[in-house]
Amino acid sequence: MRFRHCTMSVITSILAFTVLFTLVLCMEIPAPEHLNLSSQYFVHLLSWKMGPGSPDGVHYSVKIKTKSGSMVVVEACENVTSPLLCNLTEAFSDVEEIYYIIVSAALGSHMSPNASYTPFKPIDNTILEPPLVTITVCNQSLCVSLRAPAERLSEIYKSFKLKYRLRVSSEDGTEFTVDKEGLGNEPLSNLAPGQRYCVTVSIIDRSPPNRPPVCASTPKTANVSDAVISVILCLLMVIFVMCTPRLVVHFFCLKADLPAVLLDDISPYIILKEMEQWSVGIKC
Ligand SMILES: *[C@@H]1O[C@H](CO)[C@@H](O)[C@H](O)[C@H]1NC(C)=O
Ligand SMILES: *[C@@H]1O[C@H](CO)[C@@H](O)[C@H](O)[C@H]1NC(C)=O
Ligand SMILES: *[C@@H]1O[C@H](CO)[C@@H](O)[C@H](O)[C@H]1NC(C)=O
Ligand SMILES: *[C@@H]1O[C@H](CO)[C@@H](O)[C@H](O)[C@H]1NC(C)=O
Ligand SMILES: *[C@@H]1O[C@H](CO)[C@@H](O)[C@H](O)[C@H]1NC(C)=O
Question: What is the value of pTM for the model shown?
Answer without folding.
Answer: 0.65
